[in-house]
Amino acid sequence: MQRVCFLLKVREDRLTEYRERHATVWPEMLHALSASGWRNYSLFLRDDGLLVGYLETDDFDAARAAMEATGVNARWQAEMADCFEALDGQRPDEAMKPLTEVFHLA
């Protein structure tokens, strides 16, 4: 199992909208994440917009590819893209760069 953690930056003027959208994630998106192997997926948002994501999966590259193959992911990423800073032309899911794990208490 892989533990994956990543950082993104939500625009401060879109924090409320970002929180509201994640309070009501589309059922189709939730199903796609689960079916694609995303487990124990959490997002943590700081008031300045720092977003920390964490998930567990058997294979992160395969889980990302499985989500890429869904239509719902493309729609979700298109709707969420304007909420983020510094995507450099990428979709939010493409900008998720895993951090290197340096410690884990098992």
From TrEMBL:
Record SUPFAM superfamilies: Dimeric alpha+beta barrel
Which superkingdom is the protein from? Answer: Bacteria
Q: Which Pfam families match?
A: rhaM
Name this protein carries in UniProt: L-rhamnose mutarotase
Q: What is the lineage of its organism?
A: Bacteria, Bacillati, Actinomycetota, Actinomycetes, Kitasatosporales
